[in-house]
Amino acid sequence: MAPPKKSGRALLREEGLERTDNNLRTHSWPVIPMINQKNYYTEYLKREEQIMVFRQQQEDLLKAQAALLEKEKQAAMVVDPMAMDIDRGADEGEETAEQEEALGSKVIVIHTGSQNMRIGLASDALPRTFPNCIARKADKAEYEEEERCPKRMKVAEEDEDSDDEGPQFGEEFESQLNTMSNELKIRMRHNKRRILPNSRDLVLSYNRRTPPETIKEHNDPYRVEWTDTGKHKAPDHFVGNEALRIPDNSTPRYRLYWPIQYGTFNERDYQSKRRVLEDISVILEEGIKRELNIEKKDLKLYSAVLVVPDLYDKNYVTEMLNLLLKEFWFAQVCIVQESLAATFGAGFSQACIVDIGAQKTSICCVEEGMCVAESRLNLKYGGQDVTTVLMKMMLSYSFPYRDINLRRRYDFLLAEELKAKYATLNDSDISVQAHDFHLRAPEQDTKKYHFKTYDEVMLAPLTHFKPTILSHEEKLIGRRSLWERSYDLYDGQPNDPLSTAQHSLYLSLIPRPSSAGNDSTANMGTITPARPTLAGFGGFGAHLTAADTTPRSSIAGSPAPEGTPAPPGTTTPLVPGAGGIPHPGSVGAPQSTGVTPVGQAEDRDRVVPIMPLDAAIVESITHAARGEEKKIKDFLASIMVVGGGSLVSGFNHQLEERIRALKPSKEYQIIIGVPPRELDPMVIVWKGASVFGKLKISNDSWIRQNEYDILGSRLLTYKCLWTF
């Protein structure tokens, strides 16, 4: 009989090879079970408490509640027990009003302009305005170092009876002046206005033969109180109106500086970044202390709203943000654009904002509380150019005060006064009229001049529509000498914002070599309704297409591992400023060819963007509408002009006529609106920024100290209401 068959396990047991489990693990790594992918869950970024902004708001709310509770406890300790049954319902409305008032009483709104600075609490009705300048000790005053303004091509004779009629400002200026004068005569004849044939000769004859009257200082009721510098204990600096009232021949000498120029930092009159930022800091500190009675040490309890231009340099915004947070130690800072602030101040939801300042004019269309990015235009002319042209024209008409020099402080104030009094754009005001003014110079008797004007008071404000009457080359002096342009961190290309409207303007101004058979130069300045392509430009919109309006990620890919050979036909990207590689355009960098984005950015820096104001408005609206007729009609019917340059009498009517000439169709209703509630156009931007600073919906836009310590200026990408 065969033995019974044994299983394999029994055989292994008999042979001593059976595997037994002694609970000994072969390794010490924890065993992680597989995830059941049907029902796994995570709470990452699912709750509001995980977002820094929400946590900060909750912390602020808890602090406010704790402070209110403490205040109620202190009040309960001193309350009369006999008066505990007081009805509190009647005081609810007053408490709500006090809370709203307190909401703006801790917010300081700052609007830094090229000529004036406006600051004030958001709860104030109007801002405090003072010149944005500072006077520092120097060897010479500005009129002793710089050429007099306006620049004379031929020095006038000292003899007042001289009949020298030679042009003082060159043949080109005289030619354009005669052309504008003839166009004005045609316009007045068309409007049935009477014109005397010898009006100009009457003005020339009267101005040449009218001597000034001398008034003793003690007989002048409006004599000027000049700033006393103190010879022995002279301060290092003066700010604002005090700086403008310093005598030019004072002992010691003081030189006047304007740290903001053309909407950005003044790189022409300064030798270092530190001095520019120091002057801005001193002006702002002195203004807050004098006008608002707030010490610098108390600013940590206040918030700040900073108004910036629509088209800006990124370095300007980041430096100003760092100044407010790290120099003044504001609790939090919010940034708003000028055009958006203007719509908040006027209460418009859709408008084309035209902001005419002292040195720049900005145009931007605003729709539903957002600036249309592609419609932004920044033109480098403003009210100071009108002042210069007015003085040139008056001197061409034998202005009796021939030695006027806008580099001297009292002459600059006199020229601004003459422009504010006599500049007009009303046809009815154009005739031979007699005027007078008082020249008040330090340590001199007052002189009363009599003079006559004709058409120069209307031709000068027309500079906005004919900006080529002036030479703008000097506005490029010092450009990029202190601050280089901003570059993208990944691909090393310029990333300062650039709209398609501004791009089209630069294309019409940058000279390009003409080629045979290329007829593109004939229509460089035409307005194209379609969205132009920004190929080759590294500024705003470089990664956008007509069908894709969402910004894509950077075009630079992830770096390859070390030692990996590059694919054929490619080059290694160079990051400017890293590893000894100079920034493009700096000393030691290769010259631009005009083809690369860096080269085209350098070409833009060599051109002053100027354009007639009426054509610029139509250009901006065209790019904002993107071919939609309804939007074009809406923007043309809601144009609002703000800024000090719009205070010229008849300006809105003149602008409306010129835009209608460009858009003659009856389908377009062109309306130039005015700020409501009779608000001053100069403060409408500040007023809108104060309204924005009190809104509860703007909580997400505040940049706080602890956030800035962690992320720095990168917060602007997340906190700004627009694509920074």
Automatic annotation (TrEMBL):
<feature type="region of interest" description="Disordered">
    <location>
        <begin position="148"/>
        <end position="170"/>
    </location>
</feature>
<protein>
    <submittedName>
        <fullName>Uncharacterized protein</fullName>
    </submittedName>
</protein>
<feature type="region of interest" description="Disordered">
    <location>
        <begin position="549"/>
        <end position="603"/>
    </location>
</feature>
<dbReference type="InterPro" id="IPR004000">
    <property type="entry name" value="Actin"/>
</dbReference>
<feature type="compositionally biased region" description="Acidic residues">
    <location>
        <begin position="157"/>
        <end position="170"/>
    </location>
</feature>
<dbReference type="Pfam" id="PF00022">
    <property type="entry name" value="Actin"/>
</dbReference>
<dbReference type="InterPro" id="IPR043129">
    <property type="entry name" value="ATPase_NBD"/>
</dbReference>
<comment type="similarity">
    <text>Belongs to the actin family.</text>
</comment>
